[in-house]
Structure formats: C-alpha cells, structure tokens
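stage 2 :: seqdesign
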C-alpha cells in the first residue's frame, strides 16, 4: 500500500451506477458490525447480507449492543478485509477507535465520522448522514430512507471506492 496523506474532509457525489463494475474477489472477508434493532439497522444488516451473498464474500457478524468499543475491537480482532458499520449508534465509538487502527478499512453506511482518516469511508444520503449527537448533518436523520435498494447501492459504492483506493471520503447517494 502506498503512503499518501489523509484526505481533507470531502464529499464526493459519484455518477449513479459508476461503481457497478467493481467487485471484490471471492472470499473477500467482511465483518458486519451493528448495534440496536431499529428499522434502519435491520435494513442495513439485510442489505449487507444480500450484497455478501451476491458477491461471494465471507461475511461474519459482530453485535455491539453491549458496548460499542468492545464490539469494534472484536470486529478488528477478526482481521477482515473490511468492517461495515450498519448502525448510527456506532458512529461516535468509531470516531474514537478507527484512528488507532489505520491498517483496518471501515465502511460506514448512513453515517459519517466528523474527522475521517484514510481508513474510514462513508456513504450517506439525504436522511442518512448521522454524525453523532450535536454535530449536525447535511440533512435530518430519517430511518425511512434506509431502503433495501439504497443500502445495497451504498455497500456497492463504498466497497468499490475502497477496492479502488479512494478511501477516507464521504460518498453521497441521492
């Protein structure tokens, strides 16, 4: 991996479907990290599982309901190629942990860390851009925007960006 300086906080709005031809290798190791059982989290978990099945990815899950930081560390300990966060409840804990694990790639669906490092890629959309309590977002959080198709697109876009080395950015789907 070549060294590069971390990107400044930037939002990229890719052309719709521009990520559709980028796929991981069979057996790509992914950990789905989630907390809570709200509708948005369930939709995100289902979408990641669907994507993993379609792509032949090796999917493991870590439930971080008890303690977010402990859950994140457990996911890191599995040494996956990618950790996908499917819960807005984890954004603040990810902010604390990800900068200390720069060799681990993270994908946040429907949320953003306030100061991303090059190992944290986010995909957000109108209604799905949670940044943590009191930090504001580009639009109010709306769990109903976590539709199956949107979240599968978010996973595909995020993984394509990571596989292409375009990490550390916020990608916007709308």
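stage 2 :: out
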């Amino acid at each position: 991996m070549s060294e590069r300086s971390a990107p400044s906080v930037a939002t990229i709005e890719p052309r719709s479907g521009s990520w559709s031809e980028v796929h991981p290798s069979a057996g790509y190791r992914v950990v789905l990290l989630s907390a809570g059982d709200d509708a948005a989290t369930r939709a995100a978990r289902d979408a990641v599982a669907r994507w993993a099945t379609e792509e032949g990815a090796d999917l493991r899950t870590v439930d971080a309901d008890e303690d977010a930081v402990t859950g994140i560390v457990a996911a890191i300990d599995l040494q996956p190629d990618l950790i996908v966060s499917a819960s807005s409840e984890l954004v603040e804990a990810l902010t604390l942990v990800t900068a200390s694990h720069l060799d681990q790639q993270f994908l946040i669906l429907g949320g953003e860390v306030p100061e991303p490092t090059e190992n944290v890629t986010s995909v957000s959309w109108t209604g799905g851009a949670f940044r943590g309590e009191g930090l504001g977002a580009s639009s109010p959080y709306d769990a109903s925007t976590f539709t199956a198709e949107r979240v599968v697109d978010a996973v595909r876009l995020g993984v394509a960006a990571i596989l292409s080395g375009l990490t550390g950015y916020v990608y916007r789907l709308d």
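stage 3 :: structure notes
- The two ends are 31 Å apart (CA to CA).
- DSSP finds four helices and seven strands in the chain.
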